Amino acid sequence: MALKNLLALVVLLGVVGVSVASPYENPFRKSQSNPGTMGNLDLDYYRYKCPQMEDIVRRVTIQYVSPKPTLAAALLRMHFHDCFVRGCDGSILIKSPNNDAERDAPPNLTLKGYEVVDAVKSALEIACPGVVSCADVLALVARDAVLVIRGPWWPVPLGRRDGRISRISEANLPSPFANVDTLKKNFSDKGLNTKDLVVLSGAHTIGVSSCGLISSRIYNFTGRGDFDPAMNPNYVMELKKRCQPTDVKTIVDMDPGSVDKFDSHYFDAVDQRKGLFISDSAQVFKIIDRQVRDIILGQRHQRKFSGLMQDWLAFEQILECLKTIVSLQSCFINMKIHILAKKISDSALLNDWETKLYIKTQVWTRGASFNRDFAESMVKLGFVGILTGDQGEVRSRCDLVKRETAMALKNLLALVVLLGVVGVSFGGDLYEGYYRYNNCPQMEDIVRNVTYHYIYKDPTLAAALLRMHFHDCFVRGCDGSVLIKSPNNDAERDAIPNLSLRGYEVVDTVKSVLESECPGVVSCADILALVARDAVLAIKGPWWPVPLGRRDGRVSNISEANLPSPFANVTTLKKNFADKGLNTKDLVVLSGAHTIGVSSCGLISSRIYNFTGKGDSDPAMNPNYVAELKKRCQPTDVTTSVDMDPTSVDKFDSHYFNAVAEKKGLFISDSTLLDDWETNLYIQKQVLLNGFYFNKDFSDSMVKLGFVGVLTGDQGEIRNQCDRVN
């Protein structure tokens, strides 16, 4: 009965729409007085008015960033600059005929990537005119651009409105020449803390700058032809080879040796005193001598010199002295300053050390928590100064302000907000972030990194891993039972439909790494669900949320592997899916995964050579396509591979539906989708709309698939190895 109820719930969720989460509360709403920050954002804000919105943003962003990866840093910087002036309201995008808008301020003159935002907005105005704000577009574009270059993913709650004001005079951004105290105040003024400061500085891992911004640091720091002593002398020499004193244009990497990767190497560079800007070095160079550090930490010298450490100015002068005098005691003796009475508080000293401690932690742990921390800080950044409800507007063009106050638009926006608020959550015992609160917060980063490692070497594994997840869920539910080996060859993986499965090594590697990090915590069922999603994402396919918390099954029988057959007609397929709580739309949508699939000549030989036993071909197939297949597949050939989406197998797109509509479905189970009015209608819509809804629909159906027959709570187990029960 519990399983029936669960399946009923899955069907219900499919009907009313699955939401990623309940509406997001502003993470620091009480710390800001700006009324624009008091509203709520929702991950599903556009689901009911522009459901394809995120797919359009992702597709256009990939189109621009893939051939030009440096745009990722530029778009991330643009989002940061937008949020740090008037809040995340898209005001950075506004043009002014008088050159007095934010984008005209000196720090913003080097911003790039406006064309990406404009292209996304143009596409959205065609699909959903007047609905999606430029502020939301920019927030999503920044996230998706980072994802394209294999950086971390973070949720982007939506529902921002666009600001109407953009002034050059207000563009007071954190300066690359600022010290850590100034930076901390800059961030605090926006409701962000010291950890956010150092974490978001980590975005410099993909950043570039120009020689002009560092010339004084390496050639004339104090006006005496010297360089900044906070910099590594060897690094200074490297920079001088690249930057001549009068050079203001040459580009310099902000993370030397690793600028093409979004990783934690930036912190290694800063720790080695290779921070390009003063704002980088400021996080470390508060302490330049171990003896001074010991005084600050109160580890020694407390009695002898405690009276001197009563003012930060005194400490700064000690540092200046130590640049020329080696002896710490000589510096104290020669100091000619007045000791102020007020002692620096311990908390202030700890605050000053927070950035240093974080940097050291990332160096020591090789960035174990950086991606997660970056994601959390980016979510917080996205709430800074937001406009919601009736505030601001939704621009028709991102570079121009419009004054739209019609009551009809207000009512429409109010309806969208209402629908976002009442959006249905996942339900059940699965939820996103499950392992963050269950002893393995780095779990998803590990899965993603290992999966990407394999997929980039062999992109065809994406289809294989997606198929494996499907085969797992369709037998005993999504319990990882397809992974179990049997010494008697009588497990699920030994069934004929599963003999061609591959990619087990990816799951095994992920499990091995996770067992070393979080032993006995993460289930193989959850690993397979995530690996399938991340593999598709690695080949630029759609993203979908993967609620976690599955347990592993203990049973795997070859006799139960009754999977949907490639020779089945649409009536049988609909029953197969209905038995799992999936509907007809899920059937046709998930069949779309064949866009990246391959098969063998053996499975289609009878269709093209002897369909009725009279040496004929299946009349449901396009005769020209049959002729092409015969050139590739000889009658007795059972091993040669055949693409399931001719001409587009290397892309996750909607072209599969075009192929089926042209009677080029490879299997009977593909061609038969034209025999049912509902599946046929969906295919024709995808062809007509160039697959506008496919990625969103695929994501929704994959979420539903991931709930089929799950084990939770005390059910099942957490396997130590995915190929055997404990």
From TrEMBL:
Metal-binding among keywords: yes
A Pfam family that the UniProt record links to this protein: peroxidase
Domain of life: Eukaryota
Domain Plant heme peroxidase family profile per the UniProt entry, residue ranges: 40-402, 429-726
Keywords: Disulfide bond, Heme, Iron, Metal-binding, Oxidoreductase, Peroxidase, Signal
UniProt keyword Metal-binding, yes or no: yes
Catalytic activity annotation: 2 a phenolic donor + H2O2 = 2 a phenolic radical donor + 2 H2O
Enzyme class at the top of the EC tree: oxidoreductase
This enzyme's EC code(s): 1.11.1.7
Cofactors (names): Ca(2+); heme b
Signal peptide: 1-21
Family affiliation: Belongs to the peroxidase family. Ascorbate peroxidase subfamily.
Function: Removal of H(2)O(2), oxidation of toxic reductants, biosynthesis and degradation of lignin, suberization, auxin catabolism, response to environmental stresses such as wounding, pathogen attack and oxidative stress. These functions might be dependent on each isozyme/isoform in each plant tissue.
Protein name listed in UniProt: peroxidase
Lineage: Eukaryota, Viridiplantae, Streptophyta, Embryophyta, Tracheophyta
Gene that encodes it: A09p081650.1_BraROA
